[in-house]
Amino acid sequence: MSDKQPIFILPEGASRMMGRNAQRINIMAAKAVSEVVRTTLGPRGMDKMLVDNMGDVVITNDGVTILETMEIEHPAAKMIVEVAKAQEDEVGDGTTTATVLAGELLKRAEDLLDQGIHSAVIAHGYKLAAEQATRIAEGISTKVTDEDNDILEKIASTSMNGRGTESGISHLAKLGVDAVLKVKSKTGGKSKINVEDIKLEKKAGGSLEESILIDGIVLDKERVHEGMPKVVENAKIALLDVALEIKGPETDTQIQITDPSQLEAFLKNEENMIKKMVDAIKNSGATVVFCQKGIDDLAQHMLSREGILATRRVKKSDMGVLAKATGGKVVTDIRDLRESDLGHAGKVEEKSTAGESMIFVEECKDPKAVTLLIRGGTEHVTDEAERALKDALKVLSVAINDGSLVAGGGAAEIEIGISLSKYATKIGGREQLAIEAFAKAMEIIPRSLAENAGLNAIDLLVQLKADHEKGHSKMGLDVIDGRIKNMFSHGVIEPTQIKRQAIKSASEAAIMILKIDDVIAASKLSGGPGGPGGMPPGMGGMGGMPEM
Asked: Is there a contact between 408 and 490 (Cβ–Cβ < 8 Å)?
C-alpha cells in the first residue's frame, strides 16, 4: 500500500476540465454558435425570430443582433459573440461571415487534433495563414473614390441585400450614398466619413420607397405649447443645455409664509426669473429653441407669446447633430446666450408623420449632419431597415476611408483559399496542414451562400474553383439565379476591409480557443464572466452539449 497522500488544490466538488476534453467542449460550443447564424448568410438567408421573456419580438438576419440578443452562457461561445461584435464595431458588416468562418476554422482544427497534431502547431499555422490571406485580399482589391457614385450605390445594395429591404433597396442605397457624401470631410487630402453625423429616424406607415434624406435634422418631438408657430422660416436656433424652469433647493428646505403678500412676492420673484430667461432668448434673436432639459409652463406661455417655437427633453446625441447641422453652439448658461451662438436653418416645421408630430429642421446651408427618415409598413420592417441602413452607412464610410474593394458572392473567399493552398506547399512541415485547413475553411462562405439559396453547393463550388484556377478572380455565386458570374460587373461588391477584419477576428478567436487546455473553477475574476467560487455560467457538469 502506497504511503503517498493525494494533494487537493481545489475545493471538494470543484469542476475542472483538462487537455483534449476541454478543447472538444470549447470547440463544440463555438461551432454551435456559428451554426445558429450560418443559415442567415446571403441574400437568400433565413431570418431568426427572437422572443424575450416579456413577449417582445425581433425578426432579423443581422448576425450581431442575433448573437447579442441570445442568452449565451458558455464562455467559449461568448468568445465567438465577441468576434461578431468586433466585426460590427470595426466595419459594420460581415458579422455573419466572421462568425461562420470562426466556427469552420475550429471544425477543421478539430480534424487535425484527431490526427494527433498539436494545437500549438495548428495555432501557428493559422496565424501564418491569416497574415497571408490578408495580403492576398489586398492583391485582388480594386480602388474606389468618393466620386464613384454608381459603385458606392452597389456597395450599399450588397450590404443590405437579404435584409428585408428588397422592395426599396435601390432607393435606400441611393439615400445612403447621398447621406455619406453630404457629411464627408477632408483630412490631409483624404475623404473621411463619420457615420455618427447621419441620424436615423424611423416611422412605421407608408413604404420603404417613401424614406427621405433631410439636409438637417428630424426630431421625434413636438412643440411644447399649442400657441407656438408650427412653421418658422429662416430660423435662428438656440441650443440650450439648461432648464427653462426654477429648480427646487438641493437640500430639504422649509419656507414659512405668514402673510399673503409674502406669497405674492415669492411667486412674482419666480415669474421674474423665468421672464429673464425668456428675455435672454428673445434678445439673442432666436426664433426656435431646442432645450435638452425641461421648460416650465410659464416659460412655455411666454415663449409662445413671443412667437418662438420650442421643444424640450431633446437627447444629448440629438443636440450634438443639431449643432453640426445648423452651425449653432450648445449653451449651458442662459446668460451667455449670444446671437453668434445661434444656428440657422431655412425652415423649422412641425409635421404630422404617420399620425404623430415630428420636428423637421430643414434647408440647412452646409449641414455637417443629416437625417435619414425611414418609412415602412410595420415596425418590424422599419426596425430591420434601420439595422440594414446602419450597416450600409458604416460599409460606405469604410469603403471611402479605405478606398479598396473586392468582389462579393464568395469570389474573394475562393481566391484566397486557392492562393493559400499554393502558399502552404512553400511552408512545409505540419504547419502546412493547418494552412491547408484554413484554405478549405474559406470555402464555407460560398458553400453557405449556395445552401441557403437551395442550390447544389458541391457542383457550384467545383465550377467556381475551376474558373478561379483559370485566372477569373472576380467570379462568384449569384444566388438569385444560381449561376456563376463576374461579381464586379454584376454589382456585388464589398470593401476589402470587411474581408480583412473577418479573417483577423475569426482567426484570432479560433487560435485563442485552440490554446485553451484547462478550464478551472476560479474565484471572482475582475471583468471575467465567472462568478465567485465556481465555474463560469453554463459550465456546470461540462460533460454534455454546451448550454445555449
From this structure: no
